[in-house]
Amino acid sequence: ARERKRERERERSGAERERESLEWRESRQAIAMATSSKGLREQNLATLDVTKLTPLSPEVISRQATINLGTIGHVAHGKSTVVKAISGVTTVRFKNELERNITIKLGYANAKIYHCPDPKCPRPTSYKSFGSSKEDNPICEECKNCEMDLLRHVSFVDCPGHDILMATMLNGAAVMDGALLLIAANESCPQPQTSEHLAAVEIMRLKHIIILQNKIDLITESAGMNQYDGIQRFIQGTIADGSPVIPISAQLRYNIDAVSEYIVKKIPVPPRDFTSPPQMIVIRSFDVNKPGAGVDDLKGGVAGGSILQGVLKVGQEIEVRPGIVTKDAQGKIKCSPIFSRVVTLFAEHNELQYAVPGGLIGVGTTVDPTLTRADRLVGQVLGEVGKLPDVFIEIEINFFLLRRLLGVR
Predict the structure, then answer these.
(1) Strand partners, 341
(2) Which of 45, 125, 202, 287 has the fewest CB atoms within 10 Å, i.e. is most exposed?
(3) Which pTM value belongs to this model?
(4) Residue 112 · residue 130 · CB < 8 Å
């Protein structure tokens, strides 16, 4: 009886500890949310007029990225390192990626680009980049007495460079508005995936490319100049012909301010459609509930993706097509759309009241988490009820062949 009593006390103290740790985690999350929202523009659904929104509206770019930039190039040429140097976010997150030190899945990171308006502040040091949660008007680090202006909020799609992951890179190219082509200065140009990635973005008709000659800290000046000439010969006659070539060291953050300046000046803001019914392609989905969560604490499934058109608002009724796909007794395919409601909208750590096209958005819904866990909704379309495209079972495809075989040396 004494042992049973001790056991009950142990169970009770374990449950109390678990509850306390859960409360502590929730309070930490609330503090993180409060600090991340500090210095950002407020979004108000009551005063929202979608006809006046643009991709550079202050209340939009304060919290959400509106331009998608890809990093492309050969394996180990510094794509993920450049994204980290610009945004401060490490895109290599998975265990097998960290063990092998290569990107396997598409990585995502947001960055804000600022400019100091003081004429005494010389370029390119007057341009600075920070993470997505940075306040809208920080003090300039160079002149110390001037508030910087927020010019762009960029979402980076970090593509893998390995030849067997070419299909993953092509997935990333589908959402890019511009690209940073990485070429390592300590290797000959072009390497196999350098030319393959360039051919892929050519097919996607991506016109805005900035070439970054990385790892210049590892070579002499004359070797750098020779490779610069080699890069110019390589891009002649391609879609990247005439693109600027910026020498950088991503590891030491040399010339990152120049990259920020060129992103602002050379990559135009793409036209966006804010007035049509919202549509979003789901590129990942997951269940955010921890194992053992109580019934009252359960949260609906989360879908992540990029909005193609329209403005998605918190509280809006939504539909996901094709939804649940099943087969009847005769073997015919049957699609049942999923109906739900937007509970929360997030862009990285920034909470949104409404989301616009561009950048990666997380949509918290009331959908059963078992339908969204482990990327089950990938490839589906989320949007306004009754306004989504029809579901087809058969399609006809036109395709382009690359000039040479991919993934083969």
Answers:
(1) 317
(2) 45
(3) 0.76
(4) yes
